[in-house]
Amino acid sequence: MSSPGHGRTWPLVGRAAELDDLDDLLATAAGGQGVTVLLEGEAGVGKSSLVDALRGSARLLDVQLSTARASSMRPWPFAVLSDALLQSPSRTPLEIELAGLLDAFYAAPTVPDDEIVRAGAMFADLLRKRGAARPWALVLDDVHESDAASLDVLHELAHEGALHNALVILTMRPVPYRPELAAVVAAWTRAGARHLELRPLSGRATVELAEHLVGGPVGPSLRGTLATTGGNPRFVADVVRTARSSGALVTTEGVHDATGSVWLVPLDEVVRRRIEYLGNDVLVLLGQASVLGTSFVMTDLAMLAQEPVADCWRTLRHGLAAGVVRARGDRLVFGHDLVRAALYNGLPPDERRALHARAAVALSEAGAPAQIVSIHLDRAR
Ligand SMILES: Nc1ncnc2c1ncn2[C@@H]1O[C@H](COP(=O)(O)OP(=O)(O)O)[C@@H](O)[C@H]1O
Ligand SMILES: [Mg+2]
Question: 64, 176, 206, 349: most buried by Cβ count inside 10 Å?
């Protein structure tokens, strides 16, 4: 299956099982049963691409597909629901009335609450009725950015159970946490929604994706950098694109590889921009953690950050939810060494040295081996 979206021209790599699952659910909906799916996964893992790939199956099964992507840049009432439901050229009387109401909202300086409630009830009605004649699918991408009024409608409907004759897919990132979204997720969970967590690509699929992007086999140096992407397709694309645009990509006897290390500087910048959404507190703490290496122990980080462990946890929770760090027993591990390196290289040199000096003390007190402590002492100079 290929799709015009996202500039992709090849089938999705490494997602056969997930696509099969979604195809099955679409077939279930086409058979007249309502299904709701909550698709969660870290930024760039491929949520939008996966739901985009449903278009082909929807056409085959003759299921009408309505999709929209929420955006925090468009916070006005019902932005995402009206994108999904009111854009068709042939509208029902209810849709025409609703569109008229929204036009009036958007023209007015303020909208009275009861008008919002009325429009919300009309959207709920529209969603209930849309499947009356034939099955359909609704994909709302990035609901973590949805306007509040649309979330309210989704919340209300969850009390009635899955939408009649419909496959509803809501995609979302686990962070930043929004209480309104958490309430929607909880309500749909109680209504029997399926949770699908989109995991990073395997090592093999990571290389396969890079090979698609460069147009042939990739060499050892590029593979080395690809291994730091933690299987995140967006980072894979960033690696390939940055190597190419920096002129570091060379082809020798049909094998594509990156030469030198100069291109890693702009790569770090690209990666740091990708994680800006985590917010300053989380990024500062993760920057400190980057000094400790790919994996670290929470109490060591707390010593380094000069904060109580509980405070560190509270901040790091967001990094955990975002998949930037993962818990492995009592250790924490950076999910993508690419991100750790970008954070580390982004530390001002003075600060980095000071952190290494503190790490040497903290680790030595905690009983770390002398050779580890001395690595930090070296880097503190
Ligand atoms: N399985 C995949 N195979 C090939 N490319 C992918 C795959 N998953 C994602 N991509 C590419 O990676 C980038 C990020 O994917 P996207 O679907 O936008 O992630 P998300 O919606 O989870 O943030 C896009 O450029 C997309 O085309
Ligand atoms: Mg997306």
Answer: 206
Ligand 1 proximity of 241 Cβ (cutoff 6 Å): no
Going from the Cα of 48 to the center of ligand 2, the distance in angstroms, rounded, reads: 4
Which pLDDT score, from 0 to 100, does residue 108 have?
87
CATH number at 16-197: 3.40.50.300
Query: What is the pLDDT at residue 5?
Result: 42
- Among all bound ligands, the one having the nearest atom to the CA of 6 is 1
Task: Give phi and psi for 306, each to the nearest 5.
Answer: 55, 45
The percentage of residues in the chain with a pLDDT greater than 70, rounded to a whole number, is 97
**Among residues 323, 327, 328, 331, which one has the least CA distance to residue 296?**
331
Decide the pairing of beta strands 136-141 and 166-172: parallel
CB-CB contact of 316 with 307 (8 Å): no
Q: What is the pLDDT of residue 90?
A: 86
For ligand 1, atom 9, which residue shows the shortest CA distance?
46
With tokens 């009592």, the residue in question is 330
User: Which residue has the CA at smallest separation from atom 8 of ligand 1?
Assistant: 46
State whether the Cα torsion 151-153-154-155 is positive or negative: positive
User: pLDDT tens-digit profile of 189-245?
Assistant: 999 999 999 999 999 999 999 999 999 999 999 999 999 999 999 999 999 999 999
Amino acid at 30: A
Mean pLDDT for 164-169 is 95
CB 8 less than 6 A from any atom of ligand 1: yes
Radius of gyration of the chain (CA): 24
- 136 phi and psi angles, rounded to 5 deg: -150, 170
- The CB of 173 under 6 Å from ligand 1? The reply is no
Q: How many A from CA of 233 to the centre of ligand 1?
A: 5
* Protein residue whose Cα sits closest to atom 15 of ligand 1: 46
Domain spans, the chain: 16-197, 203-272, 275-379
CA distances from 250 to 74, 131, 241, 343 (A): 42, 53, 13, 27
What does the pLDDT look like over 262-294, one tens digit per residue?
999 999 999 999 999 899 999 999 999 999 999
* H and E: helices and strands count for the chain: 18, 10
* Per-chain mean pLDDT for the chain: 93
CA distance 241 to 254: 18
CATH topology of domain 275-379: Arc Repressor Mutant, subunit A (1.10.10)
